[in-house]
Amino acid sequence: KPLSIEEEEEEEEDHEPPSRMVAGATVYVRDPHYSWIPATIETEEDDKKRVKVSVRLPGNWKEQTVEATGRGAKNMKMERLVKLTDYGNDELPLQNLEKDGVTAMGKNDMADLTNLHEAAILYNLKARHAESLPYTRVGDILVAVNPFRWIDGLYAREKQEFYAENLIWSTVAAPKGRRSSVKTNNPLATAATEKKALGYDYEKLGINPHVYETSSLAYLGLAMERSDQTILVTGESGAGKTETIKIVMNHLATVEKSRPQWPKSDREKEIGGGSDTTVNRVLQATPIFEAFGNAKTLRNDNSSRFGKFTQLQFDIESIAEAREAGRAVPSCHLAGSKCITYLLEKSRVVSMSEGERTFHIFYQMLGMSDDEKRDIWEEGLMGAGTSDFSYLSKTSSDAIDGLASPENWPETREALSVFGIHGDKFMNVMRSLCVILQLGNITFDVETIDGEERAMLSARDELDKLSSLMGVSAAEIEAALTKRIMSTRGEEFTIFVNDSGARDGRDALAKEIYARIFDLLVAACNESTEPKGAPTNQYGTISLLDIFGFESFKVNKFEQLCINYCNERLQQKYVLDNFEAIKSEYEDEGINVFDFSLVDNSQVMQLLEGKLGLITQLNEECVRKNGSDENFVYKFKVVNSDSNRMIQDHLHRPYEFGIRHYAAPIKYDGRMFIERNLDKIPTDLLKCVMVSSNPLIREEFQQLSKKMDAPKSGGLKKRSEATKHLVITKFKQQLTSLMSLIETSRTRYIRCVKPNKQMSPGMMDHAHTVSQLESAGLVTAIVISRESFPNRLTYELIMERFRFLAFKFPDSDLNSGDIKVDSKMLIGLLLAGVMHDSHIGRVEAFTCGKTSIYFRTGALERLETIRQDYYAERAIQLQAWYRSLVARQQFSTLKQGMILLQCEVRCRQAYVAFTRKVRSAVTVQCFVRECLAVKELSRRRMNHASTVIQTRWRGMKPREQFITVRKAAVRLQCFNRMVLGKKEAALKKKERDEHQTINKRMSVIQQTFDDATTIQGTVFSVDEGLLDEVETMFEFLRKEIVILRKKNTKLKKDLADAETDKREIFNHASGVDHAFSLSKIRNEQMSKTNMALLDDNNKRRKEVTNLKNELKTQQQAHELQLQEMRAEFELSLRNREIELNTIQQTLHSSAALHKREVEAVHDEAERKQEEHFSQISRLREEIKNTQDSHQDYLSKLMGVLETTQESRRNLMPPSGEMILRRKDDEIAELREEIARLSQSDCNGEDESTKKEATKSMKYIVKKNRENRKAHVQSLMSLASQIEETLASGDSAQTQQFLNLMKEAIQVGEKSNSKMDRETVNMIDNTALYTQNGVANADAALIAENEKLRRKLEKKRDRKSFRSEEDSSSILDGVETTDSVGRGMSSKGMGIERQTGSKKLGKKIGVRNNLGRKFGRDKT
Q1: Could you write out the DSSP letters of every residue in 695-729?
Q2: Can you list the alpha helix ranges (DSSP code H) found in 1015-1023?
């Protein structure tokens, strides 16, 4: 029996999941300063869907969080009342908790989080960032958080080989039986699911997220599937895009070397075949791009100021050749590369923000050696610094180590030589850069001639330097910078530009030269790295896209629009990859397709590149003569006013517009859009540099001149030719080509995140990080995971894998015979209570299709967990039984052996115990003896010490006496030695004298003896014996004399030593006496100081005593005063309480009365609102009927518009009267049509009031026509007078007439602008009158007509006109003032007019029936 509607609603209410917003639940709440903060729910949900939460900040909050600034940031509210209606599904985001209740943080893959939302992603990234884990998976996106420090081992060679081994070489070798039978939708398969399908589990292998994971999977896809791969790396400046690209490129270039069991033939090929040369050449391009394309910004010291798309081209081995060589994975050798660049920020050459710098190459040039400077440009580079060049002097002068420092120049020079930039080519490039620097030194002054401001060069010496550097004469350069040659009707005339125009031309030339140099270097790198000898399409490619992330600044200009447009295209590619592939499958299976608009950005793309989109409007305004930025913004807003992606804000200035991008709404500043989109330099400057002696500048600008030849006239084809050279058009074509390349490849995403603006490691700025998560599309990835079904199983496979689990539900019956019904019942029982968050609320975790059951994220993993738990329980039971059996057998065997061993063991134990006791006894004896010996030793030491003390004490007095006696003895000895010395000296003198006497006597005796012995014939004889004795005696005496002399010498030496000792003792005694005297003096001084301090201390004690007494007195007086004040305060407080009670009673009665009045007013407002809604509905029907009757009028009105626009585009010859006559006829026809329409639409109304309104309209149109004719006649008379004056040659009078004509044109413009507004008001009044003939509308119409009539009477009495300029300018002024912009929309009709910077649009219609106010709508 089918259920009734009431029963179905009751059943749905019964199955409605319970609320998770209960007390004690841990959640995240929004915070204006920290985006999301953790909290705990304190109270249950009330009837207004509000809960009270308490903020619970973690303990490491200050160490890991950047402190927010701003009003109220420091005073965080810890208790808050939160409205659930402000959050999705009326629920707060839940925190992810482990089984033990601890918050789950630091997951490798966001898919492992039970509750996946923006706050969970933020805090998971924050936890990993604090642990120096920069990489995290979010679906198939790899998030890379810049750690702002080098992490040891993160990019080591071993790490590269680890990821290559586990993700490439071991993948194909995995057994086929381990392949998962789970079918996954490839576009939505997460990285973890993809690896599980290959038979691998990331967690078990210990494979953490890493950039090598992305590069390894790309290599595997290229080798095995032979499909091209693309890695998109995006992020804001400073997020680490450039470094990530370098790491990925280095890994891809060398991954083949990590192949296990590297074949010998391949190794020889790698060494001898030049593959290393190719790899090095590809990697050597990085220093060039960093030098010429990177610069220091406020966010990053090495920011890439251009987008780069690098294609690494690999020579892929065929599968047959790989099998023959025994390789499971075919080899992919790097054959070359190709680089495509986008959006070079060449404006940085001439201007940059404060604290930023221009490109690194200019600072490296200043650090070249003197020889290199002398060869390149001696006159300007020798001894030059940043202050010598205007383009560099306004930048930051702080050096950047390793990037723009002079030490980095040799690396750049070497890289240039690798790509063929050497010799003359190198000189041309460097001199071209010098030309750019010298152009910045060219300055201008203002010169006024005949009332006209003209630019004049003020630095002639700088102009001469530029002339010699470019090889162009100074006069030609000056003329090209300060003059413009214009051609009109075959005639040429010269116009002098002002100083601002001259500077703009100079800067445009400098920017274009740098752009040409950059393109030349890119082409040289591509030519050197592209493989030769084979078509490019024969190689497999892994492409790396490094481009700006989504940008939103305080002022967003043309560059931000291009960058965000590119990110919109990439986001569209991501969405289409993830949804289009499965949308048709869901529809075939009968599954409700989710709301595609949640992640679809096709409306933004339509707004940007549609037929009437931003690009089209901007290009048309660029090719239109006298196009302006404000006109472009106005047309863009009008044409796309019905787009919900266009931000309609009445506070926008005329040059501002807003777009709701996928990441955030952005307001753009439309100024300079036309100029930057045109991006062209004046023809005179172009002709000047085309004759330069520098071959690079001359050839590049000759090619540019050929491309700048624009079509002469209009036409659809000519217009497309004119717009194809515009910047936005070329960028759109580049993006289209890029998207076509990406669409044919397998795309992988790396989103780089900058955790904080201070570049501090371990810290995270919540608000800044969340904005990047939105810009990176991670919020879109969350929506994808919530709304899609990443896994599916067929009904047969479900019953095969999970039917045995039905025993858990004995009441269920799975034998209905319908496998679909049984499968649905089984899965419903297994996943009972498991709900999934969706944009429509909490829904079931699975849905049934025609052939399969589709599971949301995490549901299939839960089923597999239940299945594995069941098998695990049964396995444990089997293991327990088998282990018990084995253990029982082992126990029996061991028991028998143990009985035999116990005796031996006990014996051994007894022996060991006895031995232990013996050893213990010996140990105790030794210890006792040791204690006794120590005690005896201590006693003897004490005795010895006492003996020594006694000895010393007993020897003190004798020692003092001994010293005194010794001193006296020394003195006596000295005196005695003096006396003895004198005596000894006398003796020595006596001995010396005696010795001399003896010697003399001996000499005489010897002489006598000799004489006696020599006399011949003497009468006596000499006794020989006597002679011998005499000689013996003489010899003895001589020896004695020698011995005595030695003793004498020794005694003299001893005497000298004694004298020395005496002097030392005397000096020591003198020093001791002197020291004793000094110590005595110091002791006296210290005694005096001590006495002074004692006196001062006594004085201080007396003062303290006096102060204590005074303080005690004051305290007593203060206590008396306090008692008096306390009594007064209590009295006053009682009076205030009485008054407060009276006020509260009055307030209570007033509140009750006010409540009754508010309820009455509320009832009356509801009644009037219902009447108002019914009246609005009736008026809408009447307006619709009236609009149907206006179709004929609108068609004719559009004809008038087309005629007016055609007359605006084509300049008319001097026949202004014909133009005015034709426009008067058109206005008369318009007047008649309005009158006819008014008559046809107001048949049943008051005829008198209608005639009065029509009469007023005719009167206003007639007066406007008369004023216009008078204006034209005045202009014609002035023109004839000018012709007569020109014929007579009176220049002064001619100038006077020109001034008069200028004033007349201005007056005419104001008059005609007023006329148009009045006409629009009359038409609005007529439309209002034709609706129902309401009295209010009639009164408003009559009042407006009377008001306009009075204004026209006053206007007619004023003076006529004055005039200016020549006849062609008069025609332009008349044609401009007569043009009326009109637009039409599907909801109403409007006539609009733009004059100066004001835009007025009025829409025919009625906003409401109360005030009858005329609504404004720019349609």
Answers
A1: HHHHHHHHHHHHHT---SS-SHHHHHHHHTTSHHH
A2: none
Share of the chain above pLDDT 70, in %: 72
5-49 pLDDT, tens digit each: 444 444 444 445 567 788 888 999 999 889 999 999 998 888 778
Residue 1350 and residue 1347: Cα distance in Å, rounded? 5
Which pLDDT score, from 0 to 100, does residue 1409 have? 35
Residue 508 CA: distances (Å) to CA of 463, 504, 677, 682: 17, 6, 13, 9
Give the number of C-alpha atoms closer than 13 A to the C-alpha of residue 598, restricted to the C-beta side.
18
Q: Is the per-residue pLDDT at 196 higher than 50?
A: no
1393 or 242: whose pLDDT is higher? 242
SS (H, E, C) 1147-1175: HHHHHHHHHHHHHHHHHHHHHHHHHHHHH
Q: Are 564 and 551 in contact (CB under 8 A)?
A: yes
What is the spatial distance between Cα 636 and Cα 615, in angstroms, rounded to a whole number? 9
For residue 1212, the cross-strand partners are: none
Query: Which residue intervals of 15-77 are DSSP H helices?
Result: 61-64
CA distance 1332 to 1244: 9
Quote the CA–CA distance of 392 and 351 in Å, as a whole number.
9
More confident residue, 535 or 349: 349
* Number of residues in the chain: 1419
Those residues with Cβ within 8 angstroms of residue 1013's Cβ, 6 or more apart along the chain or in another chain: 1022
Tell me the residue ranges of DSSP E strands in 1180-1228.
none
Better-predicted residue by pLDDT, 1202 or 97: 97
Residues 728-746 have a mean pLDDT of 89
Mean pLDDT of 940-967: 89
Confidence at 434, pLDDT banded by 50, 70, 90: very high
Tokens encoding 1241: 């639409």
CA torsion through residues 815, 819, 822, 826, sign: positive
**Residue (of 95, 84, 120) closest to 779 by Cα position:** 120
User: What pLDDT digit, counting tens, does each position of 862-883 carry?
Assistant: 788 888 888 888 899 999 999 9
Q: What 3-state DSSP class applies to 54?
A: strand
Cα torsion angle, 33, 38, 41, 47, sign = positive
Eight-class DSSP state of 90: G
Helix, strand, coil percent values for the chain (each to nearest 5): 65, 10, 25
Question: 456-475, pLDDT tens digit by residue?
Answer: 888 889 999 999 999 999 99
Residue 4 φ then ψ, to 5°: -75, 170
Q: Tell me phi and psi for residue 9, to 5 degrees.
A: -65, -40
Distance CA 119, CA 297 (A): 30
Helices 1216-1241/1247-1288 angle, 10° precision: 170
pLDDT at 404: 66
What tokens were used for 1172?
């108002």
Angle at 211 between CA 205 and CA 214, to 5 degrees: 80
In angstroms, the CA 1035 to CA 637 distance is 147
- Distance CA(1346)–CA(1333), nearest Å, equals 19
Return d(Cα 81, Cα 85) in angstroms, integer.
12
CA-based torsion, 425, 426, 429, 435: positive or negative: negative
**Rounded alpha-carbon distances, angstroms, from residue 659 to 613, 637, 640:** 12, 10, 11
The pLDDT, as a whole number, for residue 722 is 72
Helix (H, G, I), strand (E, B) or coil at 340: strand
Element (H, E) at 821: helix 819-830
Contacts of 442 (CB under 8 A, 6+ apart): 457, 459, 462, 463, 466, 481, 506
> Residue 1316, CB half-sphere, CA atoms under 13 Å: how many?
23
Identity (one letter) of the amino acid at 551? E
Percent above pLDDT 90 for the chain: 19
- Its pTM stands at 0.60
Query: SS3 of 1015, please?
Result: coil
